[in-house]
Design goal:
With 541 residues, the chain is α/β, with parallel strands linked by helices. The chain contains 19 helices and 18 strands. The chain is globular, with a radius of gyration of 23 Å.
Length: 541
Amino acid sequence: MSAHLTRRNVLLTGLAAAAAPALAACGDGGATPSVADNADVRLPDYVPYQDVRPDLPGTKAGVLNGYYHYPERPVAAAPDGPPAEGPSINVMTLTYSPVPPPVDKNPMWQQLNKALGTSLNFENVPVANYPVKTALTVAGGDLPDAMLVLPATPRQPAMLNALFEDLAPYLSGSGVRKYPFLANLPTASWSPMVIAGGLYGLPMPRANSGSAMFYRADIFKKKGLDPAPASFAEYLQLCKDLAEPKNAKYANGDPTVTLYFLLEMLSGANTWTQQNGRFTWWLEQTDILREALDGMRQLVKAQTIHPDGFTTVGKFKDWFGNGQIAMNYDGLSAWNQYLLTYGATDPKFDVDAMVAPGYSGGKGTHWAGRTSFAMLSLKKASRERIEQQLRAYNLLAAPFGTDSYLLRKYGVNGHDFTFKKSDPIQNPIGVTDTGLPTGFVTDSPQSIYYPQGAEPVRRQHAFQQRAVDVLVTDPSYGLYSETSTTAGTTIQQNIIEGPLKGYMRGTSSWNDIADAVKSWRKDAGDRMRVEFEQSWAALHK
């Protein structure tokens, strides 16, 4: 789905809901603009960066640019000198990595500040703590200059309108051309920034092809198996051929994302579907859902799903890496991570990805992901201060092929990486230093690049071409629903963990699922539907 459900996502949503009372006070400064005002917000112009030519060009449909090598002479991102000279800039953002060394022990951070012309001070918050930290910061009133705002943050329109700067006067239309690297961000990544009648953040672009069904190409090759099944029947046989239950080896580990893959075969909704302004939730597509769940029952009965997958958390990557499972549905960024992590100890390790076939043959579909991870919102300030920050964030969005991108992603030559010809090969120190979460401030459009070799670049580009050809978007993405933000994910996960997984294992009935969906409609679903439909109607009047 556009944001695949995991226990981590549920935790974030639950914490955000708990923080709602603290954020509710943000509306005290006056009436919040209505959703109808969003239609009047003009998005920034899109001006693609063209100074570095890709080896494998991207497409307007969403395939990313692919590069075999880093340029021997990276383009200077700030040829006129540091662009953001002035007072230091304080940013609160999240991190999935260990906290990097402080600036006095981190050459990458030092060089970044030098390139910016100011001190960029990070408050790095572990991802699991971020929603509560957001609520406490907002309630305390002592805001940093900028902070990451998660999609699951409640009371967003009131909070943004009361406390944060509307960037439309700076960036709408041709205004963004003053900041050429921000102008290089795809239009789709800006759309979710439109809330409360303004442009309230900078995006953190992500690939719209989202996730992939990865497979161990080395295992497939060893067993002589075709990685392109043409139907569910062929996929079921493939899974049977992969599974060796007596040896604790299985085709798939996580039953939930495997269900998503089957729903892609059946052209199921990517969370929501929309027709003439009417929204339908994915669990309301009863015929599609039941066929997919019956398919899951067959996979479970054939012992192709890891039996611990129904209750295990956080083990699927390791199972995939060590060969306990041969397929794993994961985010696209995992491609290079798998190769770096598991290829380092297993020279035969190889990975590729497949797109869902049609359930009965023909083409299936592929669910699009979020075009922006979150947004960076800037505290209300003078025009001079806002523009200084925008010049800094513009440099943080410098794309592949520039010296700024090389610094942000790989660190300092000789300390964090060494060149193999023109390609930066990072060392463990570099991994730690570049844990500085610049990509959770803003970022350049993602690119396909693997410094260690060109073949993964070709494979990733080919996969994205197949995926975007059958891409299905989530029509609710970019629309705001308070009910969905505070309750939607938790209720959905309860249904998945209860009757859906129970049905797959034969311990729950179809009536159990129907009753759960009926309760969803009553408790939150119909309110979510109305809120999304109102937002959609305001933008399509």
